Every structure is written in structure tokens, then in C-alpha cells.
Amino acid sequence: MIGIIDYDAGNIKSVEKALTYLGEEPVVTRDRNVLLHADGVILPGVGSFGDAMEKLCTYGLTDVIHEVVARGTPFLGICLGLQLLFGESEESPGVQGLGVLKGKILRIPEENGRKVPHMGWNSLCFPRQGRLFEGLDQNPYVYFVHSYYLKAEDESIVTAEADYGVKIHASVEWKNVFACQFHPEKSSGTGLWILENFIGLTR
Question: Residue 148 in contact with residue 107, Cβ under 8 Å?
């Protein structure tokens, strides 16, 4: 069973629908025991860093997330869910993130005609082999919607990058922790392949 963390994030339903399409029976929950006994856990996310952290704290989910990670359970952050895994974001100065991984969440600069938010399809390149992307060709297209991006402190955890006039660390992998800045649940066949690879890690 894959648990989807319920903290009122906007893309929960689309993640649940994609997993169901792949034959899973995901459970949307904020119940600690359910999440701790799940085979895999997904932290979705759409919205603001500060508001999201406030809700995770209100629902008592921050400690649960750290417990899930410490247990070695496959864990996937999506979009804002990626950003929340880091310590802080320029979007919400003074708000402490989960701090599972180290890096900076920076605002995409509005210069040279660059539109913010970065919204639409963009190709990925793979600086190193990541388990989420096994079986995919180089430079697949995936769907992004974001105004802030990750610059990881340790680039050895970066498994996918995208170019939007700035280099976006679009996916990371560290031990049992995986995260994507893009939305696999909205990325057509490529995104379903990525989700299926994550499901495979829970077996």
C-alpha cells in the first residue's frame, strides 16, 4: 500500500488518480500508523512553502515524515513536496522546512524575458543514474509548474536537471528518498513510467 500524505495539498487527487490507473490502491491519510506501515509514502504539494509547513506541523506530520524516512520506506516528494524536504525557501523567509536534505530553494529570476512561474513542458537530462528514470530515453519531457527551484548543496544526489535559463535540479535521490520538482502525475506516459518505477521500489 502506498500512503499519500494528506495536508490539503492541491494535487493529491491527481496523484491518487495516477496511482489508481497503475493498479495501486493508494490511501490518502494523515494517520501516523497508516503512514508508518505503508510500503511507500508520497508527499505531494502545490502552494506556498510557509503555508504547507504550517499545515504539516498543525497535523503533526513533520515527525511522521522523519520516522518514515528513518525506517527506510521509499519516500517521494512531488513539486512543493520536493522543496519541503529542504531546510528553507526564499518564498517564506524564516520558515524552517523538513531539513531531510541540504540545499537552497531559490526564486526563478525574472530576467531576459523569462516568464515566472515556469509552467509547461520541459526536457530533462540525467547527470547520473536515478532509479526513478530507469528505462527512459535521454531528454524526456515532463510538466512543470513552479516559481521556485532547487539548488542542491550536494550535487551527487541530483538525478535530473532542466534548463529554464537557470539550471534547475529537477529530481534528487538519497538513500530511500526521492523527489521531483515536476509533476509526474501530469506528465503523460513518461510520468506514469516514473511513478511505476517508484511503485517498483516498494515491492
Answer: yes
pTM for this predicted structure: 0.97
Q: Count CA atoms closer than 13 A to 146's CA, side-chain side.
A: 32
Helix (H) / strand (E) element for 104: namely: strand 103-107
- As a whole number of angstroms, the distance between CA 56 and CA 62 comes to 6
Measured CA to CA, the distance from residue 73 to residue 28 in angstroms comes to 17
Q: Which CATH number fits domain 2-201: 3.40.50.150, 3.90.1150.10, 3.40.50.720, 3.40.50.880?
A: 3.40.50.880
The residues spanned by each domain of the chain are 2-201
* Residue pLDDT, tens place only, 128-162: 989 999 999 999 999 999 999 999 999 999 999 99
Active site residues: 79, 183, 185
CA distances in angstroms from 192 to 20, 22, 28, 132, listed in the order given: 11, 8, 19, 11
- Please name which of 83, 122, 127, 121 lies closest in space to residue 103, comparing C-alpha atoms: 83
Cell 515532463 found at: 142
| pLDDT value of residue 9 | 84
66 and 30 in contact (C-beta within 8 Å)? no
Question: Which phi and psi (to 5°) does residue 18 adopt?
Answer: -65, -45
The side-by-side arrangement of strands in the sheet containing 40-43 is 27-29, 2-5, 40-43, 75-78, 177-180, 167-174, 158-163
